[in-house]
Structure formats: structure tokens, C-alpha cells
Inverse folding.
């Protein structure tokens, strides 16, 4: 193996990998206690005061930047952390503490032959690299998920949250120390150079989780040979079938587009069946009423002359803001073809009262999440009941769609024998039993 | 999306993708019948005659090349197909026909709220690209696995087997036709240019399976953005612990090294504990007796002066032939450290009568397969009871170790509602039920 050059960060990650072995080897009660104690630490009033003080430094800088127009207000809101947000984090950590174990779970227990037993047991991936937006609560959630899954974690949060992240990391390190776990199991990287260095450690880091802008995710994918799990592009569609209920169309269109336009599970294109004009009109009027910029195909503009004309590039665009493209399609076939060509395999939803059409849509659309009469915004780990989520994957291998703690483990095959060799088996010799125990 | 340029192969793969939808939608009885009929077709004496005639063309060319020294004898043996090998293939296909379904299996069934049901259902990956060695039986096994998992498959076998592969593909196509399935669900590529073209189709091909030399696997990984599942390097170790049984050490060392030296699950380095000299001597003498070239560290050569000296590069070398490197280690810690540094996360085995040492080895070694008192050669889909295998993966994400048909499926999240939107939920509003059904 051609190991990357030595560096301070590389030494830290080597230590993290060793500390990860301790995390992997924790018993279930030890892991529960660790997460419960982490929850308790964040409940401590003095600790909360320290966190909020750190956060104030970040917020002051952010508000200055906001006034200069260098930072969006939404980002400032996400950056702030208060007693209420901390209480939510404490609840989350306590839930993780109590949730079923994901490490050391037996997936296979098979007798291959007398005294030759094969087990398949879940285990942590090892070392996670996580680069995420300037949202301090994300640091705590991600660390909780890493500890639950027995992984060491190298964290790099958005630079605007640095002061808050430093305080949070100290709290986490103190709890790790109290459990005799090397604090380097959780490492905070503070600068961009660290990320570039991290991406080179393909022999030490087992999974990179990249959150943030689509541009950033592409940067990560293009600059590492470490497997990447990412919120990549989310080009989601809402298809109003000929048998769509107008009121559902209207409600779901508005929720899917406006409840959080920057999220990857937001709808970008509304497809309407030529026989769903009434539902389409209702949805379009509701979107316009909710201050959404609507860009339509010719058939759509024939009914709504006031809207802008969509161009071919609109069908491949993730707006990330209050803009939606609208296109008329001849039928379900054409809707499926449009989604197959332009969708990003994230979330696709059909609005219809026709169960057969819904069944076909759910069976044929090649996406992580396929919905019927529901908002695309349900595509979310919390809403799916996975607890916290590390992200939504549009890849097909390993975890798909919203990824919870189960996506952070792998398994190993363990075989215990008493001296068996393979040349004993075969035609005219011993046979395998292959008996599941 | 920037789709690759149009080409004849691209059109074929587009057709394969569409045909894959038919495969994905087959009912369980239909899929069983398809595989059973494929098995029956290969039992037909006329078809067997045609296959063997095609194979004779390949064998004649191969033997010419062998006489010129251009082709290894082992390759010629693997290339040949006879009535006995065909009978084994028929059995395998019939077993696949009868094995439990892997498509359409429900993994989650959760009530998120009244009339809002989330299911997670297994589904095929879509289109598989498989590049494999000149072994005609591999073509049939891989096709069987693809059909069982509902995937279309683009096949490229070693060029030495081209005539045989053509006949086999015709047989498969005839069975697909009889089931009204577009024959382009199974595509045979005949030239290297086709492989280069295939690797570009990242928007159509969901998984590349690369079998063959380590060099070839690296070529595939370096030349595609399609996820690759591969037999990559297999640098497997056998560690003789201080409490190793000499007879087991001897038997397992010889089986692990000599039963198929070119396989990835073959042992490359024997580590022996300073307190396991007797077992080490037994193993080394047995290896030498089996015509294995032994390359030792200084401590090993002190006991066996006739053997060659190992250099640092030996610890990172996959020989693929009857050569083994041997190194003395101070204890279990040093063995674990050597494996962590030089192993390829494939298969590692400890020989010991000490259960505590075995437990620690099985718990701490970071490899797909961790064995105790068993040959590394057990690392194999058939021996593990997975039925046929598509390969052995040394990656940690998705399937790990020997990969059977379960590694060829993914899942989708299907949500069925009656108009729910996300802004209805939250503090002071509706709550999720998250009740598993």
C-alpha cells in the first residue's frame, strides 16, 4: 500500500483509528452509559452557559457578516444554539442510548460442517470523516451516531460555527475521558487545509460523509478515493396524474416546494397530466400565491400566460430556492420517462386517486424514495423514524435514501474451526452441511 | 446530467435497462420458471453438443497458444467445458430457481401516521456490468445470479472463451425469448473496446463487477465512475499463535497456500509467534515439501538456513503462485499490527488452542473474513453456503467478503399517504406514530 505522507493530522487519525477499536469493543451497557452521560453533560447548566457563550462569539461575527450582506439570514438562524435546541439534543442522545444496539449483531449463524461455524456479525466501519454545514447541533448529532455505531469520527464543521464547535468538542472529550476512552476518538478539524489532508487518508478513513452545497459534495467526490456518502443533487418531481385530487395537489405542491426550499428533498419540477388540468391549475395558483416563481412549458403557459417560460436546462436544475418548473406530460409513461431522464434518484411523488397508477409509479420509478399522495419533504431520517440521520444517499449501494445509524456499520464473517482444510471437501469427500443455526 | 455520447453499445445498454424493468417486475413463480427452464435448456443433449463444439474451437486455439508458451496450462483447464461441468451448472441454476426470492422483500413496514405507511422493499440494482476471466461456466453462473436478482447484465468474458460464450449466450437468449423477455436483458460484449465504452456509461450501469488479475481490477477502478465490486488484492495472513497446534498449523498452511495459489483467498504471509517455533517448523517443512518457495525473515532463516531471505516488499506482495513469506512476531499484538499494516482486509486466520487469543484476533482484525483454526481458502461463496458468488469484496460498504445474490439488490423506500404534508407535524401540531407493523 502506498500510504500518504506523514503529517500531524495523519498521526491524529492513526490515534483516532486506535481509539475506534475501543469504541468498537464497548459492551452494550458501556455504550448506553457513554451516550446517556453525554446527554447528561449537555443538560448541565454551567456547560450550557459555556456553549451559549461560545455560540455568541460566532453569532456576533455572523451578524456582522449578515449586515455586510456576506451571509444569508437563514444561515445565521441555523448557526444559533439555545437552551431549547440543547434540550432537543439531550433528548436525541438519550434516545440513541436506549435504541437497539447496531454493533455486534449476528446476521448469520451457520454450521458449515461439524465444528466449523460461520457467523456474520455487524461491526463499525472504523473511522468516519464528516464535513458539514455551520450548524452546531449537527456536530452533536453526528458524534452521537458515530459513538452509537462504534466509529471514530473526524469532524469539520462550517467555519462560522468554529467557536461553538470548540466548546461542544471539549464537552464530548470530557465525557470520553470519564469513560477512559482516548479523546482522539472524536477529532475536530478547524481549517480547510485539514479537509484536503483528510481526503488523502484513503488507507485510514473508511467513509467520508459530505453535507452542504452540491458544489461542495462534488468537490469531495472529485478529490478522494475514500467512499463518499453524500447529499448530492436532489432533483425531485411531483407528478399530477389524470386522477389527481386537486386539494391534495395544491397542498402537497406548496409543502414540497416552500417548507424548506434549500433542502435536497424539495420538489424542483411539477409534471401534470394532460388530463389533470384542474389539479395543475390549483397547484400552480397555490404556488404563485406562496411567492414561488413558476417556469412553465408552452402548454402550461397557455393556461398561465403570466409565468416565465421554462427552457431545457430547467428540467435538470436544482434551484434551492422558491422557483419551480412545470411541464405537461401526455400520460404516466411520459412522466416516468421524464423522471428517468431528469431525476436524480432521490424522491419522486405521484398524486392520484387511482391505485393502479400509484402501484405502477411506485414499482417503476428508480429512486431512493417513491411516494404516493405525500409530500417529497417526508424524505428525512427523523420523519422516517430512523432517529437522527447522517444524510440522504442517492447512491444505490450500501444505505439508500435517509441514512441512520445502520448505515454506519458493516459486517465481518467469522469462521471458527478445529483444523479444517478445504481439500477435505468435494466430490467423493466430505460435504458441507450449510445448516443455519 | 452529462450523458456519454451516443453509440451502438449505449443503445444496447439502454435496451438492457428497459429489459431489466421486465426482469424486476417478474413474479416469484415467473422468476423460478425462468431459471428452471434455463437449467433444463442446458440439460438438452443437442444444446450440450453445440456448447462443446464451440468450446472445442476455443480449446484448439488455446492449446496452440499453450504450445507456443503464450498461455498457461491452468488457463486451458479453466477454459474447457464438458458434460460434467454443464451438469454442475444445471444443478446450480435449479438451486437458484428454488432459493428464496431476494427481490421484493419487505425490510421495513412502518406506520408513520394514520394512513401514512412507509415500506422498504428490496429491488434489483438495475444494470450490471461484469468483466470476467476466460471461464465459460462463470458466464452461466453470473447470468443466473443476475436473473435471480432481477438485473440486466452486460457480460465481457476473457477473449479465449469467445466461441463458447457465444453459444452459451444464444441458449440464454432462447430461454429469455420463450419467456417473452427482451433478449437484450443479457448482452455479450466481444471486444476490449466494448469494455472501455461500457465503463463510460455511468448513468446507465449501476454496478461494475470486475474479476481477473489485480492489474485488471485496478484498470477498471481507475477508468470509471461506476461503483466497482471487485476481487482486488488478497494479501491474507496465517498467524501461528504461541499455543498453535503443530498438526493444524501444518495442514492449514499447506491448504491455504497450495490448493489454488492464484486465488485471492490464498495465504501470502505466515506469521509465527516467537513461542510457536515447533508449529512454525512443522508448517515451513510441510510447505517446502509441497514445493513452495519460502522467503523468511532473519529469525526464520536462523532455523531454516536453506530458504531465501524476505525483503520489505515481500510483506506487501500477492504472489499468486507457490511462494510464501514467513515472519517471526513477538506476540499477538505484533501479529495484529503487521496484519493491520500489510493486510488487504480480505481473510486472516489464527491457529491457536487458546480461546481467549482467538477471540481477541476475531474481534480486532479489520478484514472481511476472520478465521480461527481454519484454512483461508474457506473464504468462498460456495463454501459459505451463499450458492454461487459474484466475487469477494474487500470494500466495507454494501456487501463484504464473498458476495452472493443478496449483494446484487438494493432497496427503495415506498411511502403511501392520503395527502399528508410535513408542515402538519411538529411542536404543538401532529406527532409521528413511528409504529412498526
Amino acid at each position: 500500500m502506498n500510504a500518504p505522507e506523514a503529517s500531524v493530522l495523519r498521526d491524529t487519525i492513526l490515534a483516532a483509528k486506535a481509539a475506534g477499536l475501543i469504541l468498537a469493543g464497548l459492551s452494550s451497557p458501556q455504550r448506553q452509559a457513554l451516550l446517556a452521560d453525554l446527554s447528561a453533560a449537555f443538560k448541565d447548566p454551567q456547560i450550557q452557559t459555556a456553549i451559549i457563550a461560545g455560540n455568541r462569539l460566532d453569532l456576533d461575527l455572523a451578524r456582522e457578516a449578515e449586515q455586510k450582506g456576506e451571509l444569508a439570514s437563514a444561515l445565521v438562524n441555523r448557526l444559533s444554539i439555545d437552551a431549547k435546541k440543547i434540550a432537543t439534543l439531550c433528548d436525541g442522545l438519550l434516545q440513541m442510548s436506549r435504541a437497539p444496539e447496531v454493533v455486534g449483531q449476528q446476521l448469520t449463524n451457520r454450521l458449515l460442517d461439524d465444528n466449523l461455524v460461520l457467523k456474520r456479525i455487524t461491526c463499525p466501519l472504523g473511522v468516519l470523516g464528516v464535513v458539514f454545514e455551520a450548524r452546531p447541533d449537527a456536530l452533536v448529532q453526528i458524534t452521537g451516531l458515530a459513538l452509537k455505531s462504534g466509529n471514530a469520527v473526524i469532524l469539520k464543521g462550517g467555519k462560522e460555527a468554529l467557536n461553538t464547535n470548540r466548546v461542544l468538542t471539549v464537552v464530548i472529550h470530557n465525557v470520553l475521558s470519564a469513560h477512559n476512552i482516548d479523546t482522539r476518538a472524536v477529532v475536530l478539524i478547524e481549517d480547510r487545509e485539514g479537509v484536503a489532508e483528510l481526503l488523502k487518508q484513503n488507507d485510514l478513513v473508511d467513509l467520508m460523509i459530505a453535507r452542504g452545497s452540491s458544489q461542495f459534495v462534488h468537490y469531495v467526490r472529485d478529490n478522494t478515493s475514500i467512499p463518499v456518502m453524500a447529499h448530492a443533487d436532489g432533483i425531485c418531481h411531483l407528478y399530477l396524474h389524470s386522477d389527481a385530487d386537486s386539494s391534495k395537489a395544491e397542498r402537497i405542491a406548496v409543502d414540497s416546494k416552500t417548507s424548506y426550499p434549500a433542502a435536497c428533498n424539495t420538489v424542483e419540477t411539477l409534471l401534470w397530466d394532460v388530463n389533470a388540468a384542474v389539479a395543475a391549475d390549483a397547484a400552480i395558483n397555490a404556488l404563485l400565491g406562496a411567492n414561488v416563481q413558476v417556469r412553465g412549458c408552452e402548454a402550461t403557459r397557455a393556461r398561465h400566460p403570466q409565468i416565465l417560460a421554462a427552457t431545457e436546462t430547467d428540467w435538470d436544475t436544482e434551484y434551492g430556492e422558491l422557483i419551480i418548473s412545470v411541464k405537461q406530460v401526455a400520460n404516466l409513461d411520459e412522466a416516468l420517462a421524464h423522471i428517468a431522464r431528469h431525476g436524480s434518484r432521490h424522491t419522486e411523488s405521484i398524486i392520484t386517486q387511482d391505485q393502479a397508477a400509484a402501484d405502477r409509479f411506485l414499482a417503476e420509478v428508480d429512486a431512493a424514495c417513491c411516494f404516493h399522495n405525500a409530500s417529497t419533504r417526508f424524505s428525512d431520517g427523523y420523519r422516517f423514524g430512523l432517529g437522527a440521520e447522517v444524510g440522504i444517499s442517492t447512491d444505490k449501494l450500501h444505505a439508500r435514501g435517509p441514512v441512520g445509524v445502520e448505515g454506519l456499520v458493516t459486517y465481518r464473517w467469522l469462521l471458527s474451526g478445529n483444523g479444517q482444510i478445504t481439500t477435505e471437501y468435494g466430490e467423493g469427500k466430505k460435504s458441507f452441511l450449510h445448516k443455519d443455526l
About this structure: The CA atoms of residues 57 and 260 of chain A lie 27 Å apart. The first strand of chain A starts at residue 106 and ends at 113. Chain A touches chain B through 68 residues (CB under 8 Å).
